[in-house]
Amino acid sequence: MKKTINVVAAVIENENNEILCALRSHDMSIPNKWEFPGGKVEVGESLHDALEREITEELQCKIVAGEVIHEHTHEYESFIVHLTCLHTRIIEGIPHSTEHAKLIWLPKENLNSIIWAPADIPVVKVIMQKA
Ligand SMILES: Nc1nc2c([nH]c(=O)n2[C@H]2C[C@H](O)[C@@H](COP(=O)(O)OP(=O)(O)OP(=O)(O)O)O2)c(=O)[nH]1
């Protein structure tokens, strides 16, 4: 049976209505695809706590996590991901990549100009509808 992992990801918007997009590196799972920064929720952790922890580790800045934008389940070939994306804003620092190949800020209306991890496509559509 395929394993299901619970993942929480940050839709980080700046004052220019741009969204932070992170490129998975060639040595990660789902390589060379764009995603929203975040990661797996640990046992006993709330979504908000998990996201704030992951962003501190991954981007070396502090965010505050807000409402859920979208959540759904996507089945990959070897595992299933339950992805919850939260609206967030940075409260301290500037994002620096510690794990990703690249970070870019993209205007909401251009989010479909890059190749997203398949699980992210529904949330990208939701964000673009609100652009
Ligand atoms: N953080 C994040 N992960 C995503 C997104 N979309 C998506 O399919 N995923 C997948 C990629 C990973 O397999 C998993 C997230 O786990 P992770 O961030 O701990 O991934 P990882 O590469 O560090 O871990 P691993 O797969 O090497 O064990 O969920 C997304 O938008 N953000």
Automatic annotation (TrEMBL):
Substrates-to-products reaction catalysed: 8-oxo-dGTP + H2O = 8-oxo-dGMP + diphosphate + H(+)
**Gene3D superfamilies the record matches:** Nucleoside Triphosphate Pyrophosphohydrolase
Question: Keyword Hydrolase on this protein?
Answer: yes
Q: What is its EC number?
A: 3.6.1.55
Q: Would the keyword Hydrolase turn up in this protein's UniProt record?
A: yes
Q: Which GO terms describe its biological process?
A: DNA repair; DNA replication
The residues forming the signal peptide are none
Q: Which residues cross the membrane?
A: none
Q: What are the alphabetically sorted keywords of the record?
A: DNA damage, DNA repair, DNA replication, Hydrolase, Magnesium, Metal-binding, Mutator protein
GO MF annotations for this entry?
Answer: 8-oxo-7,8-dihydrodeoxyguanosine triphosphate pyrophosphatase activity; 8-oxo-7,8-dihydroguanosine triphosphate pyrophosphatase activity; 8-oxo-dGDP phosphatase activity; 8-oxo-GDP phosphatase activity; metal ion binding
Named cofactor requirement(s): Mg(2+)
Q: Nudix hydrolase domain spans which residues?
A: 3-129
**Family (UniProt):** Belongs to the Nudix hydrolase family.
Tell me the protein's name. 8-oxo-dGTP diphosphatase
What is the organism of origin for this protein? Gracilibacillus halotolerans
